[in-house]
Amino acid sequence: MKRLISIFTLIFVFCAPAFALSDAEYLKMKKDPEFAKADRELTRAYNDAKNSMTKSEFSELKNSQRQWISSGRDLYAKKLIREGYSRIEAYTEATLVRVQEIRNEMTLSTLSVDDIEGYYDNGNDVYLYIGWKNRAKKLLEISLSSGGENWKGSGTLNGNTLVANYGGTSVTVTVIDEDTVEITANSAFRRAVGFDADDIFTRHYGK
């Protein structure tokens, strides 16, 4: 029978600093059913990511996983402990949060333009449309409007980021998930139009 060793343990051996969990503490925590379950989910998510991501995407994930083991996990757990969590509860929750982060990265790695095409708003009277401008050239159109003012630019999706340009104005769309994007505009955009578009936008189904 093959012995399954979690990713948590494998990366910990190489990356654990002095303030991180010791091997003994980790093994003791694994006796807790909830922590053990979270640890198994982390291993499963990591392996699923390895099988679904491109080589470069998985390389970035490995780097972020090392950073999480070396500092992010412990900092998050300490924050929860200050809020009243027990040590085992805090590390269990930190592990579950990391599982979700990995799952989100997997979703972003498989997003296509068709997945993000549609209408969005920020809940503050600014409206966004993302759609095809020229499929053959893989060119996308970004439209922003508010209070009668409109802006349109175009660009291509690179990973989870789309930079749309028009003249000297520029808008960066960062895809957070299938229904959520973040807009960041350059200073020329803010001077050219009569509204501020920097915000989180949520998709709505229907114009």
Q: What is this structure, in a nutshell?
A:
This protein is an alpha+beta fold and about 210 residues long.
Please estimate the helix content: 40-55%
Strand arrangement across the biggest beta sheet:
4-3-2-1-9-8-7-6-5
Span from first to last CA? 56 Å
Give the overall average pLDDT: 84
- Look at the helices and sheets and give the structural class: alpha+beta
The unreliable regions are: 1-18
> How many distinct beta strands?
9
Tally of discrete structural domains = 2
Instruction: Describe the global form.
Output: elongated
Count of discrete alpha- or pi-helical segments spanning 4 or more residues: 7
Radius of gyration: 21 Å
- Report on the biggest sheet: 9 strands, antiparallel
H/E series: HHHHHHEEEEEEEEHE
Measured by DSSP, the beta-strand proportion falls in 25-35%
Protein described:
- The protein is of the alpha+beta class.
- It has two domains: 7-109, no CATH class; 113-204, Lipocalin (Beta Barrel), CATH 2.40.128.
- The protein has helices spanning 7-15, 23-29, 33-52, 55-82, 87-109, 113-116, 187-192, and strands at residues 118-121, 127-134, 139-146, 149-155, 157-158, 161-166, 169-177, 180-185, 199-204.
- The chain has a nine-stranded antiparallel β-sheet.
- The chain is elongated.
Task: Give the topology.
Blueprint: H1 7-15, H2 23-29, H3 33-52, H4 55-82, H5 87-109, H6 113-116, E1 118-121, E2 127-134, E3 139-146, E4 149-155, E5 157-158, E6 161-166, E7 169-177, E8 180-185, H7 187-192, E9 199-204
Helix pairs in contact: 1-4, 3-5, 4-5
